Amino acid sequence: MRVIISTIVCLIVAAPFAAVADGNPIAFVNGTIYPVSSAPIVGGTIVVTKGKITAIGKDIKIPQNAQVVECKGKWITPGLIDSVTQLGLTEVSLIRSTVDGAPARPDPVRASVRAADGIDPRSAAIGVARRHGVTSVVSSPSGGLIAGQGAWMDLLDGRDQTWTESVVDDRGVWATFGESGAGAVEKSRASAMQRLREVFDDARLYRQNRTQYQRNGLRDLVTSRLDLEAILKVIDGKQKFLVSVHRASDILAVLKFAKKQKIKLVLVGAAEAWLVADQIAEAKVPVILDPTANLPARFDRRNSRSDNIVLLAKAGVQVVVATQSTHNVSSLRFMLGNAVRSGLSWELALRSATLNPAQVFGQNADYGRLEKGRTANLVVWTGDPFEPGSWADSVLIRGNIQATDNRQTRLRDKYKNRLKL
Model-level pTM? Predict the structure, then answer.
């Protein structure tokens, strides 16, 4: 059995991926462009040069040396962004040696753990996600009360060496409250909140007395020096504090905590957020959620409903759609379709997986919209990207055309003519 499992793992991780790059400009012509930040452009053109969008609109002059891609009848959008995943951190969920997203560390505070240190940009799961138009993700550690720091990753192909620069940098300190957070600290929500306050208080004390700390002249602190340094990034506003929480009362507790600490908060999951939508909107806190979560998977989500995202958006909350998965990142576009089915506008659904996550994670200067000067992460679709009958015809990441084959398609092609019944 061990030999069989090892063979499967080798097959999964050995498959190469390919990116196609061309130094000449690329012009996508006659497509319907959805820039997100402005109205759609029917019969428009996008010119990409050296990784950037250098022209967009109608009646665009195409450079003589450009590679021209005909897009008549096709839709062009920014690349999709999945902002809650462990893509690149987990290869085979049941094989512990391939899981880097959940450190086996008893300490509930792990703020200094960096997802960027464990990501494998050549994970076989990345090609599957990219085939469905996902061009960037935020991979984050999990477990404990404070899990660590997430990382932004562009899903570059792995045939050449561009993938070595795929991980941008740290993005947020991730934590858990409510039922899961309580489980990490004495099975009690009160104990979990008490520990959070203590960690933040200790971080401030440590900053004011670094010299005494180095001389062992301070009282005992509840966490390590590196963890305190990571928390200081949150206190100083350099990193956001992303908290996975679901029950309405727990959400209010986290909002109160963030207000008192004067930190930038992002809610993750938030199955019962619709019950306190006005309070979330007043606090100007974004919410990252799964719009298909409509069942009480756990007791703290018993008021889940499929139009959670719609009610939050109507209240003025900035919403972001994420799969909160590793091996189902490819389903992001179908989640957006389900959000539209629940009543969200098509335009806001697209924004919730493009510009909104880029803004939440501080990447909106380059990502999330199609404008001149922005990074050329874009997808050419055969039709509406939220429809199962459409697919990604061309995927660009940082201006490079990416191969859309992956391990799944290669296995399909290898055996489709051999297994005839």
Answer: 0.90
